[in-house]
Fold:
Amino acid sequence: MNAKLIWRKSLNVFMLSLTGLCALLTVSALFVVLGFLIYHGGKDLSWNFFTRLPVPVGETGGGMANAMLGSLKLVFLAALFGVPIGVLGGVYLAEFGGNTVPFLIRYTADLLNGAPSIVIGIFAYTVVVIRFHFSTLAGGFALGVMVIPTVMRNTESFLRDVPRSLREGSFALGANRWKMVATVVVPAARQGILTGVLLALARVAGETAPLLFTAFGNAFWSPGWSQPTAALPLVIYTYALGPYEEWHELAWAGGLVLLAMVLLTNIVVRGFLSRGAQVERS
Amino acid sequence: MATAPNATTPADWTWNPRALLRRYASGDEIAHLITLICAGSILLLTAMLVYQLWIHSLESRQKFGWSFFFTSVWDPVFSHFGALTFIYGTLLTSALALLLAVPLGVGAAIYLAELAPRRLSDSLTFVSDMLAAVPSVIYGLLGMFLLVPIMRTTIQPWLKASLGFLPLFQGPMFGTGFLTAGIVLAVMIVPYILSVSREVLLAVPRDLREAALGLGATRWEMTWRVVLPAARVGIFGSVFLALARALGETMAVTMVIGNNPKISASLFSSGYSIAAVLANEFSEATGNLYLSALIELGLVLFLVTFVLNGFARLLIVVTTARGTTTGHA
Structure:
């Protein structure tokens, strides 16, 4: 072998192993994240953590029960507001649209999807908070705005995967379009749509930025829907920045709970519910 | 997909009144209208968002005009607001993030698309998708308690000792600052670059690879000279997509950048970004001018990411069926 060939072959091996190293580094980040959260957060998880309110600094045994309930309420509102609009909009894009209008809507949905979440928070502030005040409703609105484009695009892509023969069979039996959509196409894409919805909800459940000046945070229970409320990501943020060691430990524990929720939803949904279906990642 | 699935049946387009009546009676038009309203709400929301930010930033826009972007004074007490420090922080941290994340993400994508067996490739992509799903406050938490101490005790002294002659690596080392924020952002955006680039690479036709190999290229030469150039546009798209994420990322940056409005050439210096100042000061802003200056910052952030995303989507559409197209590849 001449020198040039040896050079080319060794460059080949070197660069290709470098790409393998890149992949290894990237993937190992997840295990670093998981490992540290379990290491730091695991020891502070207790029954109290899930059932009690935060306590003043210095006392032991405080929990994040109000934040977990708050997160649940916020996600519930976001689902209530965002899922029907998103799913029906997706049905329009896949089933009823022509060419120009759906393209415009699709494009805008993608752009809204990529908008910084803190800007969505400002939007919710100017729409809801200025007129009323910091509240669960305002936070739910902000998260709902973020849910709509994701659910819409996911629903659309799963509806498009429904085979043409099903539609034609339904037409042949005399169904009109909306009956075909409602009784054949949507049920056939049911699992996919559910996947898209759950992934969107898991994503907003971890959002902090849009809640900072909408849900605002609260050290106590937040009765009803029109008062400021705590949320798990907000509390983690506040506690992490606080000066006390106890707070930092609680932040780790809260982070572990949040991450476990988000990742489990993702794994279960992607692994089991959407078997074989392609999930839109962006 | 060869034909659009929503091709209408011929009967839909006869314009005689009885057929029209029948269609209304059958509910098709009503269903069309309802779903159209839901889909159109996206346009309405986006328009409302821009409008709201525009009118609520009126006071600041009138008072400062374009000088808002070129002055670096941020003084709530004397009501003088300029965005330059925040713009600098946002651009610098995002640039650092790209510098680290692009080689890493594209390299990993090459491995997953060209070398790894399909099953391994799929499971590693799954892991990368999980990374993309980790909430940003968790990255912030790890940044604060894991990365910042390492930066302070190990990485920054090492950089200073080896590259300290550059103005980039001088000054006191606190652990927080531009460099730390850039690293955290890099970790956060790698999954986006990876998953889109991988798909773009997989979409490069097999013939091109075989032709290159047939001409005697090594695998690396094939990748570097043939596959990457063919996928170039889509990879640029993924990079812009990631850039838009990095510019708008709030929590993780706020937690590690140091939150100190100053412009410094040193990467060790603490700084501030647009998203971070919004997170910290918005709910405490007193006075309309203060609030409207912050909202103007939000408007700028939105418009920049909007344009970047729009551009990125177009680039990705050109090379794959991802992005904004209707069907699957």
